[in-house]
Amino acid sequence: MKDFSYISHLECPKCGETYEETKVQQLCKCGSPLLVRYDLEKVKANVTKEEISKRTNTLWRYHELLPVHSEENVVTLGEGMTPFEKFPTLGAEYGINNLYIKDEGIIPTGSFKTRGASVGISKAKELGVKQLAMPTNGNAGAAWALYASKANIKATIVMPLDAPQITRKEVFVAGGDLHLINGLISDAGKVVAGLVQNQGVYDASTLKEPYRIEGKKTMGYEIVEQFGWKVPDVILYPTGGGVGIIGIYKAILEMQELGWIEKGKFPRLVAVQAEGCAPIVDAWKKGEKESKFFENSTTCAFGINVPKALGDFLVLEGVYATDGCAIAISEEDLLAAQKQVASLEGNFICPEGAATFAAARILREQGWIKEDEHVVCLNTGLGLKYPETVEIEGVQTLQPGQELFVNN
């Protein structure tokens, strides 16, 4: 019988220290996030990409490359294998012949945070965790609270006061221990840090446990598989904490080692941020390896309003290593792109996802993206979760019995 997982150990990408994955681990003693490593030779000997393609359409189809030893500990709502669709009309508008969306809005809880929650909660359950805490801008807290309820783990969630209403309600309806703070996610993080230090609660903050990345990396596996086990030329990703872009880069490296894709062939990774919160963009422009805290950050794309990411050095490493770039998008451009995607292609996407389409258009205009390149934009959430981003104007109110005339 094949092992359910070929996880080997945890490793610090900064100092190289290794840790056991059978015990609760948070950050490395040097303060860096830890990365999960697998026995890839064993995976190679026991699993083929053709075999994986015949499995059930959830992210757990890649279970040998996920960190949970026992299938009975898997906490799942059927997440994964989200739509991967070509956008011909919008592509023609942008001058990109092969423009695609990877639509993470069509997933339980309505956002890509579900992936990290499923894998992170499953491993927490396997490790015997009974209570966790995390700061969030909304969607992550909602996803982790819902999956924690399924795993019978208590979840304490701290989010900014102006986080989207729907995500607060998701935490509440899941029975989560919800707290609101009059500040940013960085302020929420300080509250959680105090709780972790003083009461020994499991810290599920972004990158302070090693397993959220493993859930997010499955987006990389899926894109490549849905693309016929080929690598696209460009992947644009809305970047706040940056776990998705770190995970996608990790997935590409793993697939190269497994021989599932051509070695040395990378998609150019694009970190997309909002002009009101662009620490990664500022660092990339200066060629720096880490970002600086972005003061007074603000954007309607709430999920990427992260003034300083713990894993910023890993995000920048992925961008540099793939000859990618980082770009900041104005509020006007991302909201215009949100409307354009819906009106031309029928997808109501979140503002964070819309930022990637605005970025694709701008990078095509600049010549950085070429006309015939295969370009993938990540939509990280359902637009319906952000009703406040759409202003309805010029709608006629009819009286009962009033005749309606429309322009043909």
TrEMBL record:
Keyword Lyase applies: yes
Keyword Manganese: no
Required co-factors: pyridoxal 5'-phosphate
Record domain Tryptophan synthase beta chain-like PALP: where: 75-381
Single GO MF descriptor: threonine deaminase activity
Superkingdom as given in the UniProt entry: Bacteria
GO biological process: isoleucine biosynthetic process; L-serine catabolic process; L-threonine catabolic process
Assigned keywords, A-Z: Lyase, Pyridoxal phosphate
Protein name: Threonine synthase
